[in-house]
Design a protein that fits this description.
mainly alpha; 13 helices
Length: about 200
Amino acid sequence: MEYKQHLKKDKILASVLEAADHVIKKRKNTPVRLMASIISQQLSTKVAAIIFSRFIALFDGKEPSCVQVLACPNDRLRSIGLSHSKVDYIKNVAQFFLDQKISDKQLYKMEPDAILALLTQIKGVGKWTVEMLMLFSLGHEDVFAVDDLGIQQAMIQLYKIEFATKKELHTKMIDLSKKWVPYRSYACLHLWQWKDQGAV
């Protein structure tokens, strides 16, 4: 894969690139993808996947429309393990997509900064949540999730980063990531995989 040749120029990162190649692609039903990002906030990948599967099961195993999500009683959404705030945030997403008439095609064509500006207007949707959407659903190959705890832990371990403040950590991570451009999404995927395999 072309991205691996580029990322291997970073000799330290090269050590975690031995795993199978990752593929980044566009996925449909963006509002549901964004809801999945909200569900995964502050949760492990495994727990998030379980709760998301329960979420889909509420709608007979099919990804719901925004109208269906808004019509679903809050208590029913709470019953699958969602907090009160996450239920509100999920419904905020559904309402926003309906009000703004946002389509998948529209988001596919937008620049990252424009997507961030648009979707972070939704209460409960922050920068990290939109970054996950861009990486896993909108096909963006150059997303660097500097606020992601897993990425932070992996990079601290791999690069032996020393820092006194969160700001200093962020600055050092961003500096290290510059050599990965324009394939930072793939670097994140390999760092997550390396961490999940017990390296951290």
